[in-house]
UniProtKB/TrEMBL annotation:
It comes from Periconia macrospinosa. This is HET-domain-containing protein. Pfam families: HET. Residues 44-175 form the Heterokaryon incompatibility domain. InterPro entries: HET.
Length: 201
């Protein structure tokens, strides 16, 4: 809903310059898990996360991915998209000229994504995206007094993300700055940022 509101109200203000075509862009097919070259004008979601020590991976199609990537694939599909870009998997490091050319176009890759999923929880790729699949959010504490249920105000989510491992890494922080729309997963809640608005659950 947030993405649709942004697209309707903000128009080109929150859309990257599509004239800067990224040559040989590769995307994860969220239905099969396979990585293929993008078709002309194909919409995609990007992921920004801390790699860390990935360790455990789960199978998705013919490839295996850590939990955060698995959750990003699921979240992408839930948002109504079928293609996902992740630097570690979609940059072909075996093709040095292509790899270097795409590094020079990282700004275009993130700006042209429909939205960037930001994993601002956990310290590595095994943590997952809270609230998507296996990683549950902690319950909100509450107390009932005279039939009135009281709960504390949640911490401001952008303050939570500012203390995250994701924010402490220059590389991932830059990815966030380059993105025109960000859907940010913190340990306790989800929030959305674009150039024209800021929304929480």
């Amino acid at each position: 809903e947030w993405i649709n509101v942004c697209a309707h109200l903000h128009g080109d203000h929150c859309v990257g310059n599509t004239n800067n075509k990224v040559e040989n862009l590769r995307l994860i097919n969220c239905d099969t898990g396979e990585i293929k070259r993008a078709e002309e004008g194909e919409e995609y979601v990007a992921l920004s996360y801390v790699w860390g020590q990935e360790g455990t991976k789960s199978k998705q199609g013919s490839l295996t991915y850590p939990q955060t990537v698995q959750d990003a694939i699921l979240a992408t599909r839930q948002l109504g998209y079928s293609r996902l870009w992740i630097d570690q998997y979609c940059l072909d490091q075996n093709n040095l000229p292509e790899f270097q050319a795409q590094l020079q176009q990282m700004d275009s890759i993130y700006k042209q994504a429909a939205v960037t999923l930001v994993a601002a929880a956990g310290v590595n790729a095994n943590h997952g995206l809270p609230g998507v699949s296996t990683r549950l959010r902690p319950p909100t504490p509450s107390v009932t007094i005279d039939s009135q249920t009281l709960s504390p105000l949640s911490s401001t989510p952008n303050l939570t993300s500012k203390t995250s491992k994701w924010m402490s890494r220059a590389w991932t922080f830059q990815e966030g700055l380059l993105s025109t729309r960000r859907l940010i997963f913190t340990p306790t809640q989800l929030y959305f940022e674009c150039r024209g608005m800021y929304s929480t659950e």
